[in-house]
Amino acid sequence: MKCTKCGGVAVIGMPQHRLQLCAEHFADWVPSMVQRAIEKYRMFTPEQRILVAVSGGKDSLTLWDVLIRLGYQTEGLYINLGITTEDYSDVSQQRVEAFAAQHGSLPLRVVNVRDTYGQATPDLARARRARGGRHTCSACGLVKRHIMNQVAHEGGYAAIATGHNVDDEAAVLVQNVLHWQASYLKRQAPVLPEAHGGLARKVKPLCHLYERETAAYAFVRGIEFAELECPYSVGAKTIFYKGLLNQLERRSPGAKSSFYLSFLQAKEQGLFTPDEEGEAVFGICRKCGQPTTAGDLCAFCRLWESMS
Amino acid sequence: MPVAKIVYRKKEWEVESGSTIRAVIEKLGLDPYSVLALRHKKLINDQTIIEPNDEIRLINVISGG
Fold first, then answer.
1. CA distance B44 to chain A (A)
2. I need a labelling partner for A272 at 20 to 30 A (CA). Which of A13, A66, A69, A160 fits?
3. What is the structure's pLDDT at A98?
């Protein structure tokens, strides 16, 4: 397989783009795709400070590396969830800290959930499930979103950037379509604007890249990411949906990308009618000060109060 | 017949050299869009021919979140 640009040995073939690239050209192609997404969706400008949510995995470290190379002002946020199985959280944190150190002591904030709130996320999730609550991932998502929002708001960042890629977005889209979750479909986008005086702007600069491409970039750039998968992700529906989408992609290269990008286009062209009932009413959580629709305590603070 | 070693998620297989990485991926029942192949820690494309005494590491790239 030869590089489409130079004829050298290709390291990756991308049938959906009819492109095969060597290491050097691929390492440049990925940032160009990210820059295109940043501009297309007006995510942020070079003058703005961006908080990059880094987990130690391939996507978030690829994102951080690309944004640095593109000249954006970034600071990292790592949330140690306290997952001790196979030292998952500690290994992930080491990878993030090593990346920051190797790139000239990049600014990095670390929030340890156990140290900050008294319990680790798996303990929280277990207690919640014992009371009839939902899967661990639900509690984990709630914790991460709250902390990201709090750090972004307090630090005055223009946006939180996360490493969501096409595979992630298409899998969520499949799930939301299968259950016709209209409210989630309306909100799914590469940019979630700042809202309600406290919900930070969220952007997904990798939204034009396949998961295989973000991983390949990390290997080509020599980024040492945590290869260990979250122990709680075993059997996750997301992985199942991604598998289905890859079967589709094998038969029809570009299908994943088309499914997701065509959805975004359809939304822009009026796929959904505006809400007739108007926007949800937001109050302020009396404990943490974040916006909430849930009464005087937000879901995050209610969760911790129920633990005590 | 000269063999090579394939490693995936702590499991190892011996395969005959001469076929492509892609053929081996499919023979193992894996999804070609879900894995990348490394030889000596370097990324290689899936049309690469496996050579005798190669040690190829397959990496799963699909995460659950």
1. 5
2. A160
3. 97
Chain B residues with CB-CB distance to A167 below 8 A: 62
DSSP state of B51: P
Sorted by where each starts, the structural domains of chain B and their CATH numbers stand as 3-60 (3.10.20.30)
Q: Domains for chain A: give ranges and CATH numbers.
A: 33-266 (3.40.50.620), 273-308 (no CATH)
pLDDT of residue B48 exceeding 80, the answer is yes
Q: What is the pTM of this model?
A: 0.92
Distance CA(A161)–CA(A52), nearest Å, equals 5
State which amino acid sits at residue B5: K
Residue A54 · residue A61 · CB < 8 Å: yes
Chain B residues with CB inside 8 Å of A9's CB?
A: 45
Query: Do B36 and A216 count as a contact with CB atoms less than 8 A apart?
Result: yes
Q: How far apart are CA B26 and CA A148, in angstroms?
A: 40
Which tens digit of pLDDT belongs to each residue from A31-75?
A: 999 999 999 999 999 999 999 999 999 999 999 999 999 999 999
Q: Tokens 């199985």 identify what position? A: A85
More confident call, B39 vs B10: B39
